[in-house]
Design goal:
Elements: E1 8-10, E2 22-27, H1 41-46, E3 50-54, E4 64-66, H2 72-85, E5 89-93, E6 101-103
Parallel strand pairs: 1-5, 4-6
Antiparallel strand pairs: 2-3, 5-6
Length: about 100
């Protein structure tokens, strides 16, 4: 990644705040190798979704500042997104206003 690459943005992380654990579906394996999401409903029916689970959080997310200002569990969710996608998250949206964002 070049220094000028901005990284990923996660929008509306404030909407997934919950005491329940949350998960990210990151793979849909089938008997054959699939390189993209299978739009064929017969192939999709054979796939088993693999999730990575994360502990939930109930703490209010800050409306400005750094990603490191979030709760431990909210940060773990962002770290999980980075791990699965292999790309850094540089911004997390935490509200409806433009300034409601956290940065690295």
């Amino acid at each position: 990644m070049a220094d000028s690459d901005p990284g990923l943005a996660i929008a509306e992380q404030d909407h997934i705040r919950s005491e329940k654990s949350d998960g990210i579906a990151y793979e849909h394996p089938s008997e054959g190798r699939i390189d993209a999401f299978p739009w064929d409903h017969e192939i999709l029916a054979e796939c088993k979704t693999i999730y990575k689970s994360f502990k939930g959080w109930t703490e209010e997310l800050p409306h400005g500042g750094k990603i490191s200002d979030m709760s431990k569990n909210a940060q773990a969710y962002v770290d999980g997104v980075e791990e699965i996608l292999g790309f850094p998250v540089s911004m997390v949206g935490t509200g409806v206003n433009r300034q409601d964002a956290l940065f690295r």
